[in-house]
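Friendly challenge for the regulars: who can give me the structure tokens for this chain first? No prize, just bragging rights.
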Amino acid sequence: MGVAGPFPGQAAGPPVPVMDRDEADRALARLGAEHEAIETSLLALQDHAGRRLLEGAELTGVTKERWASTDQAITLLWGYFDAYAGTLAQARAVRARRRYPNRDDLVALTELLRGQGVTVAHAAARPDPSVNGPARLSERFTLEELVGRMNELYARSLDMVVASDSVWSALPARIDLLAAELHRTRSLAHSVGVRPGEHPAGDDLEAITHELATLRVQVISDPLAFWLPGPGSSAPGGGRPDTARYDRAARALDDVRREIEAVLAVRQDAEQRLVQLRDVLSRADRTLTEARAARGEVLAKIAASEVPAVSGPATVLQERLAAASEYRRHAQWHRLSPLLETLEREAEDELLRARESLTAVTAPLAVRAELRGRLDAYKAKVARHGLAEDPLLIERYDAARRMLWSAPCDLRVAGHAVLRYQEAAAELLSQRRAPGPEDRR
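First reply, four minutes later:
Bragging rights claimed.
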């Protein structure tokens, strides 16, 4: 719609210069195009699905209040538009009198097109709620001022209609789909004995059912209560539906559905999962036994080394595994389901802890093996370069080997001996590669 001009009620400006024929023709063409655009917009608003729904709905809350004001604004819009169209038709009639208008015609056209030539009688239309001050029986506008007033009313009305329609288009259908999923979940829950008062998931299903029913009624009667305007947006309908309550209900139903599916899965494969649990705990016990044996070996073969202690088997987990077997025997699936999930997680943690304990206990043996490998690798390297018979290397190799192949082995001293052998070998190898004085000449 057109660009807003100054509102009536302001101080009158200087006299408007009389337009010439070309100016009048251009103004009539522009205002005619604007008239068509305004009419198209008003008809689109009149036929908008959201407006028709608002007109026939039993509204409550903030939507009821805003629709009363919006309905009044739409009625006033048509009154303004009729006044605008009447003034434009009057101006066209003046222009059509003669091909070359005289001065009286141009004065009349100037008053109609640029002056306050539009009179709106409020006896025939309700007063504009957007205007402050005492009520008037009629008001006078320029065409530009009237377009500005219509723009403001149109934007505010369209914003309310679009926001309501957006909520109605988004939320009720989603709520109905979620309610259908809720019905299927309730049937499934009853088949495995999950009922209100007997299982927490049954109580949750009852709460979700009540919340969805209440939410749907409120969304239908008061859609604007579920509308979040867009930050900084002045465009009509800028914003989005507030789906927070729906999202919470959907997440709660997902949680319940996962729990019921877990109960179903427990009923189907409880015995297999119990066997796997026993296997994991057995492997953890064997690993801890191996770690205890390795610790004794390390203490016997490695000197001056901190070897961590090894804990005993997880008797608490074994007791809880026995309780899980009792739940299965008595078909207490809703109790077995969470217990199995916890036991599976804790059994894997126990196996990981046992493996870490074995790794920590055998770390000194791994260090000794690495030192032995490094020593033999350097011995092979110097042999390839013909330095295997060097007395210094033989002496240092024998010293390092005695330390690494004796028990208990002091890893710190043995590591130092291997380093001394490496340094001696590196020095001899660098001397062999360096050219002598004759070679340089």
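The chain has four domains: 21-160, 169-265, 267-361, 365-436. The longest strand covers residues 118-121. Your move, everyone else.
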